Amino acid sequence: MPQPTPRKFDRDARRKHSGPAHLVIGDSRIDSEGCHTTAPIKKGTFIVEYTGPRITIKQADALYDDHPRTYLFGLTDGKHVIDGEGVAAFINHSCDPNCEADEIKGRVWIIAARDIAAGEELTYDYNLYDGDMKDPSLCFCGARKCRGSMYSEEELAKRAKLLRRRTARKKKAQLKKSKD
User: Fold this and answer.
1) Within its chain, how far is the Cα of 83 from the centroid?
2) Which residues on neighbouring strands pair with residue 37, listed in sequence order?
3) How far apart are CA 26 and CA 32, in angstroms?
4) 78: number of Cβ within 10 Å
5) Is the dihedral of CA 46, 93, 28, 116 positive or negative?
6) Domain ranges in the chain?
7) How far is CA 154 from the centre of its chain?
8) Was domain 7-179 assigned CATH 2.170.270.10?
9) Is the pTM above the cut of 0.85?
10) CB 130 within 8 A of CB 107
């Protein structure tokens, strides 16, 4: 029996799920396409909900195995993600964002972190916290204080510490081997 085409390849299907009329998907200086506002937005405004099917992390791993582009938003339960649809799925990462994401009563909202002018691209800090150690999840936001990665500062510190430990163990093993 033929398998249906996985959602990961169907960017156009994600666009079909609407959002507020003042949010549009357009060219992005950060990553191909992004979500832009055609009207000003005041700080603190709940802009759009991040919607889509809720799936387990295991299902997401299978669905997006070997595909660098995802639309996944990790939920605080640590077991599920939202496979994003609609304009919110096109909001890009920035190390200096104009929005923030907040999970409130099981729903994920994108909220204005400052006043946003009409025409601006909406961004929030993805603060990634898991993933393959070999995946740097590079950031191209262009912010003056860009971390160079979409991983959170805490995750980057954890990864650096782990790398230092691995390097120290390797050196220790090489020294032991050379003495033998």
Assistant:
1) 11
2) 23
3) 8
4) 10
5) positive
6) 7-179
7) 15
8) yes
9) no
10) no
99-104 sheet: strands from edge to edge: 46-50, 107-112, 99-104
pLDDT (tens digit, 0 to 9) for every residue of the chain, 180 residues total? 344 444 555 666 676 667 899 999 999 999 889 999 999 999 999 999 999 999 999 999 888 887 777 889 999 998 999 999 999 999 999 999 999 999 999 999 999 999 999 999 999 999 987 777 787 889 999 999 999 999 888 888 888 898 888 888 887 788 777 776
β-strand 92-93 against 123-124: which pairing, if any?
Answer: parallel
Q: How many Å apart are CA 51 and CA 44, to the nearest integer?
A: 20
Quote the CA–CA distance of 94 and 100 in Å, as a whole number.
10
133, 161 in Cβ contact below 8 A? no
Nearest to 22 by CA among 43, 52, 48, 61: 48
| Integer Cα distance of 144 and 149 in angstroms | 13
Quickly list DSSP for the chain. -PPPPPGGG-HHHHHTS---TTEEEEE-SSSSEEEEESS-B-TT-EEEEEBS-EEEHHHHHHHTTT-S---EEE-TTSSEEEE-BSGGGGPEE-SS-SEEEEEETTEEEEEESS-B-TTPBPEE---B--S-TT---B-----TT--SBSB-HHHHHHHHHHHHHHHHHHHHHHHHHHH-
